[in-house]
Fold each of these.
Amino acid sequence: MTHNGSYWFDSLAPDDLGLAAEPMPTQVDVAIIGGGYTGLWMAYYLSEYCPHLKVAILEAEVFGFGASGRNGGWCMGTSHDVEALLSQVSTRATGLRLARAMQATVDEIARVADHEQIDCHFEKGGNLMVATSPFQVTQLQDELKHLHQVGFTEADYRWLDAPESRARVGTASNFGAMFTPHCAAIHPARLARGLAHRLKARGVLCLESTKVTGYVSGRVETNRGELRADKILRATEGFTPTLKGQKRAVLPIYSMMVATEPLPGSVWDEIGLVHRETFGDPRRVVIYGQRTADDRLAFGGRGGYYFGSKVKPVIPGDDPGLDSVAQSLRDLFPVLVDYKMTHRWGGPLGVNRHWRPTVTFDPETGLGSAGGYVGEGVAASNLAARILVDLVRGEDSEILGLPWVDDLARNWELEPVRFLGARILQYAAERADASEAELGRPARFWDGLFNRFVD
Ligand SMILES: Cc1cc2nc3c(=O)[nH]c(=O)nc-3n(C[C@H](O)[C@H](O)[C@H](O)COP(=O)(O)OP(=O)(O)OC[C@H]3O[C@@H](n4cnc5c(N)ncnc54)[C@H](O)[C@@H]3O)c2cc1C
């Protein structure tokens, strides 16, 4: 399979999908399983710091086929676990260090893209979290106050009043927004494919259509034969449950996206996003949008979970789960009623049982892994890969002090508990959002239930 169904893959140069096939090696120093950002960044930094090592990346489909080539393109200077760390006095300093490392990671990605001449449409226009209801003004301003109390400044997060916020993004209702400059919009597939091309040019063995069927310390089995490797690093995030013995290691949750046709200047006069700011709002069924470099709106929302951790490699465009995402976009921008949504797709992302990313490496077995970014992995995968590479090199570094290192999660529950838990979580999130939209005040009961399930 080469196409992941996304607008991003559709907009790549026609000859970009698929690298020239390479013969299967029998022995390498490092074998990386999975050719998304996590695996590609691992190979990138290994080839930077240890050019003498023979590195292979094994990708079942094509590089960027997974979440990395089909996401919302928010390259965020934060990660999912920062908020929880900042909320406790005992972990606040750690949360701030992680946040600063993530902010620097956005610039690191820009640096590499620039240095390697990967034209991934990187534009650091920041992020707007829009209050679409008056009560969300208080909610977001409280959050802003908290962020300033714990050590961020106006240069990190600031309030835009309603006129300024509306001028930035013309959503149907907009009562102000929390703005951070620490976020860039990118074309996700261009970053993934661009990295793959550069790695191949550097001599990394970039093996597409090479599916790992099992692995143990020192040995990887694939559909193309066996490979011996001193170190084996897994970077399969939301696809992890398809690997032998890893069914309950990571929960695959789906995110769904749509993209409009290119929109004319008159529509952009109304919508704004002049600096390609990324935008969302505080609802629990997360939404995210960006203006693409070719003037489309690419917009997504969190989808669901399938019984038994089923991994659907491609979501068909007529999947009913995509209808609510399309509707949310039209509700935000009624002007879109006259314009087509040309693309609809989705895909799995990975959640660890403790809802935090994790990076681990055991020097004795040579086995390592990174992932579980809870839908916020575009930038986080770069930091995770750098951490893993430092662990592999046995090199002490500041980022090894970050909380993801060896923060192992237990397995997810057996079915049907897993499915029921995911369903209750989704239902509570939807009910809380619907109630708040209807009544214009916080939905305390549903919010309480929702929060019980995300810890
Ligand atoms: C629709 C969507 C929107 C998102 N939006 C954003 C966003 O805007 N911002 C953000 O920060 N995050 C976002 N995310 C999350 C982010 O994209 C992911 O966290 C990140 O891309 C994960 O990268 P990865 O390399 O770890 O995994 P992936 O990119 O999923 O790569 C895993 C790779 O492993 C391969 N693989 C699987 N099994 C095998 C096997 N047995 N053998 C060999 N290869 C195998 C797969 O084919 C796949 O290419 C989104 C995710 C989705 C699905």
Note: The first strand starts at residue 27 and ends at 33.
Amino acid sequence: MAEMKKVKAAIVGCGMISGAYFNGAKKFPSIEVVACCDNFPERAKEKAEEFGCKASTNKEIYADPEIEMIINLSPPKMHSTINIEALEAGKHVYTEKPFGVDEADAEKVIKLAKSKGLRVGSAPDTFLGAGYQTCRKLLDDGWIGKPISATAIVMGRGPEKWGQAPFFYDYGAGPMLDLGPYYITALVNLFGPAKSVVAMTKKGSEFRTLGADVAEQYKDQYKPYGKYPVNVTTHLTGVIEFCNGVYATVISSFEAFGHNHPPIEVYGDEGTMCCPDPNTFGGPVKVLRKLNKDGWVNAPLSHIYSDNSRSLGAADMAVGIRNNRPHRCNGDLAQHVLEIMLSFDKASEAGSKIELKTTCERPAAMPLGLDDGQIPE
Ligand SMILES: NC(=O)c1ccc[n+]([C@@H]2O[C@H](COP(=O)([O-])OP(=O)(O)OC[C@H]3O[C@@H](n4cnc5c(N)ncnc54)[C@H](O)[C@@H]3O)[C@@H](O)[C@H]2O)c1
């Protein structure tokens, strides 16, 4: 690993999440962020100074022959456009979630990448962390027997307090496209690809009112505050049928002030596994086995990367590029997850089951015993 030629990357979009990527990338020797850009050049300049890379423009980055990979951290509605621009420029592209906001654009990205022999990757990469890799090992090793069903529940009152509320209630976001990628990807990591979706979805109200506790940095962007329209469904509930036979009940909602459900639970014929928040890399993982008279026990985390390791998926893609092996957070997985998520509204509107058109390989498990920064070859 130490001898592998680093993949030089550029970050497009220097907003809130970019710091985690700049920091994360420093931990992984397979990747080096050499440039960044943003529609607001001062944001790129600030990040470039902080993290020691070059502030550029999109055009300069696309034209730079040294840069092999674009890390796309733009807002969701821009993802497919930037993915296509990057691929047209001959770069591999790793994008933040969701993979796109509609299926046609996502498919264009996949087809273009395949026609050019380039890689497409997508967040989330949290399922590669210690928490979900431990869950997967426990499941695959039979600790809860054969999985029969699961629940995945993410509910809150909505992100008004972050000041980005109009974005979250507009087409391309909502609870499913914003938080669903973590939950649905975690389920596909556990169970493999899905077959169908049934669902009912709705809006809690036609308008939301931006709260007074708006983050200072957004005050200029979203004036005037007040009522703004809700253009997406804000309470989605349904069942995903996985090809391995598991039925996962999913609730994704901005319509609850709080709840006490675990993020994800898996019910097997020999026990139950309570999984951590899939929007994090760590634990806890708890298991209740039918033969265990102590009841619930905390399972030790078997894998590395329990701290915030965003960039892990991009670093794994870099090793995949160099070693000519598939990368785990790949476009097929992200496209399948996107189709599952979009199928909730479709199933609700149609009042019937949606048979999924896309599929993917269950991503390879991470091996045990990696050192910090190490990615499997
Ligand atoms: N903020 C989080 O906690 C978080 C966590 C995980 C994932 N994400 C995802 O990461 C992505 C970015 O989120 P964020 O919170 O950083 O958003 P943000 O709005 O803070 O940042 C996005 C940045 O992209 C820039 N941008 C837009 N179009 C561009 C273009 N064509 N070229 C260059 N720059 C462009 C914007 O100017 C902005 O600075 C989203 O897809 C989001 O879902 C965010």
Note: Residues 130-299 form a domain with the Dihydrodipicolinate Reductase; domain 2 fold (CATH 3.30.360.10).
Amino acid sequence: MKLLLEPLHRRSEKKWANRVADAQTTDDLWKLFERRVPPIVGEYFRGAADSEITLKGNVRAFQQAMTTARGAIKVDSLDLRTTVVRHELQVPWFASPVGSLRSVWPKAEAIAAQVSGEWGTVSALSTLTGTPMEEVAASSAGKCWFQLYLCGGRDVATRGIQRAKLAGFSGLILTIDTAVAGNRAVHARMRPTAALQSFKGLPLGQRLGLLREKLRLLPQMLTHLSWLVSYWADGGIMQFVNIQMDDKGTPMPYTDIGTQLAASAVTWDDLGWIKETWGDGPLIVKGVHNADDAQRAEDSGASAVIWSNHGGRQEDRVPPTLHIVAEEMPKMARSKMDFMMDGGIRNGKDVLIALSYGVKAVGIGRAYVAGLGGGGYAGMKRSFDILREELERSMRLVGIRSVDEIRENGAAIRRQNQLIGNSSLPDFVF
Ligand SMILES: Cc1cc2nc3c(=O)[nH]c(=O)nc-3n(C[C@H](O)[C@H](O)[C@H](O)COP(=O)(O)O)c2cc1C
């Protein structure tokens, strides 16, 4: 079956590569993502917690932010390099960790690492992923970070950390904002667990019920055949191969992610053994909302913090990350850590605005997933192309040459937005 589907996947890859080539913005890529990926899968990537106020707020905060522009300046060459945790990045962004990526495109985690490596930047691999971490690291010409959840408990996590070290991952991200799973109601209503559930061991009555649930998905599968072919060419339902449940390397089966997250809550007390197991490499704490937690991370030995509200997927009605950065960064002026942020970045000007608050790099989340789901390698490359073109254009128009200059002159670059209301803002796409 796999052999039969592989050539069809290759053909469809070419078709979607042509389509992503025409995308002018990451919104265009997201629309292609929605065309190719069926709703029951796509909603996992689009959705956020509760009323999705923070998801939209993340994007709106950037749309409302304004900068100055300087006239009669010709900027000949631009320097997009930045350094975080002693890693020199050729562009001031990295690929944020995103779980279950392999369900949008075959071996998507390896592709994300490949594209990031080609761009001279880092790709962060989530614990909850389907491509073996060794293959992911080997796909990148650059560096990769491993993002840790404590799924399966301390022994399982210890095995994961040691494996990541051996595979050559050069940074460990510890995500601290998942004490319980966020309530992603829109996706829950679609009953995704029924789609994944096996008939094995069920009595006849329940089998029939499950069959009805699965047949309900038929219309959306038939209208997304490109995705379906590629999904089965890649082996179908993925397993969490980066969580080994025992010494024999038994992977965690693909189960409800919410339950996994709730069972893997981390506390500050865990940082000690995690850091000890990881060794001298940089420990990066992700999901920080306030200076108190950032300070606690530094006191616990972290080298860096990622200001993040998990793309609005955990606690709704927390501030947009850009507002968190604006309020909390000044309080950390004496810190020796490096600061990054993610949440709501949809174009290159967003990158410039985030950097203007002093962070050294930003994480890209759904904006690269849009490319991966819309066209695999070509799509993700296109999303990075778009970000770079937009960032470079903005830097030239603002009259600034380097990431360091943006960070040093932030207050002079930013302008107050005096427009009243949201009527000037474009529709929210993702
Ligand atoms: C579908 C999806 C899955 C995610 N999975 C993880 C994860 O496994 N670990 C993690 O630390 N963050 C995860 N995140 C959060 C991202 O790392 C990042 O914080 C967020 O996507 C940034 O917001 P943006 O997508 O609006 O740019 C996930 C985000 C999405 C959209």
Note: The first helix runs from residue 2 to 21.
Amino acid sequence: MTHAPDPADDHWSAVAQDWADLWGTFTDPARRALLAATGTGPGTRLLDVGCGTGELLALAASAGAAVSGADASPGMVDRARAAAPGADVRVAPAEALPWPDGSVDVVTFVNVLALTDDHEAALAEAVRVLRPGGLLAVCGWAERETNDLAVVHAALAADDGEPVDPDEPEDPWHEEAPVRGVLTDAGLTVEHVEVVEVPWAVRDVDAVVRGVLLGEDAAGVAERGPVVRAAAEPFRAPDGGYRFRVAARLLVARTPAR
Ligand SMILES: C[S@@+](CC[C@H](N)C(=O)[O-])C[C@H]1O[C@@H](n2cnc3c(N)ncnc32)[C@H](O)[C@@H]1O
């Protein structure tokens, strides 16, 4: 099985600038927690997989780390290179990383692992490129009751005619136990778990609509924008901006010392 990026699947390049503008920095509190929990500092060799527009690369570089990034989307990679000029950023899928065995100290996935086609292959690649005793950090959104944006997504689903199920099961990627499970299955030992508040603060309702409907065409935004506006209303701040409570969960796990 090959894992060469398929240009037809690259919807991220078209939204790279909007991603950077609207979502780029919002997980910074979790990124800082990740750098602290992994002890990233001068000389740490850190590889960020699914590096997006490069915000973690820039933070790690400013902490003195030697940083590399991989992302399947050429448009995201262009912006990551601009955000972290000293970093070695490559267009590459998580499932086939072009780095040698044992060549990095820390591998990170921030809001990425759940998006991969084959998370087992992605984790196997992370373990391969890590040195013995290296650290893998996985960060993603926590359960929906910690995430105000779930209200907006529920309104969109209802508008689409999807049945409302009050007992809808949680997405396993948003729970601690399943993520722990995939890390353990990959041969890693979880050493640290932390939930970090990452509020999404947006300047006005137009930006809320652009952010939530990222990647939709003009017709989709015209049709669904009013639903987003109405659902966002409870989250309007006194200054006219919008503030959504969101929590991210960080797990840090270690590879065997060999
Ligand atoms: C939600 S964004 C997160 C970007 C960044 N990690 C952040 O936290 O801002 C997901 C990113 O993962 C990348 N991605 C998704 N699947 C991937 C895969 N299998 N291999 C490499 N990159 C992938 C996308 O191109 C996109 O840049």
Note: DSSP finds nine helices and nine strands in the chain.
